[in-house]
Amino acid sequence: MRCGRRCPPPDAEVDTQGADGNDDSVEAQRDLPFQQTLVAAGRRIFLWHSHHADPKEELASRQGDEILPKLERTVHHAQQAGARLAIFGHWHIPLDVEVAGVRVINPGALAAGNFFTRQSLQSCGVLYLFAGGENAFSHINLADPARRYAPGF
Prior knowledge:
The chain is built from three helices and seven strands; from the N terminus they run H-E-E-H-H-E-E-E-E-E. With 153 residues, the chain is of the alpha/beta class. The strands form two sheets. Strands 1-2-3-5-4 form a five-stranded mixed sheet, covered by helices on one side. Strand 1 and strand 2 form a beta hairpin. The radius of gyration is 15 Å and the shape is globular.
């Protein structure tokens, strides 16, 4: 799954699901949905990048540093989709938190951080779905992939 930016390349022989991101190419925006709900191992997973399509709304959403109110939009969309697991990418900040019965995960980003982002490391993650409905998610710090990484909140 990917939550923005085309990865792997379009010619890769890998089955991926994703959603378009705010900086994706016109082709990616054409080929990928704004959001989607996947069903895997009997679970509904809400997947999106989480940016606002309207640039004015996007700028307004960046005001303030309170995280929980910003997560409410993702939680709402996941609940509307009947999903108890939501994965998004827009912030590029590793996150794993439960809000209102929805587990909200941001795997971080593969790209290096820059002046404009709060991203401090390059990361990705692995989602495990177990029989009986349990799930687990592991963040991976790409600079030290052998060492367990748990983002703070």
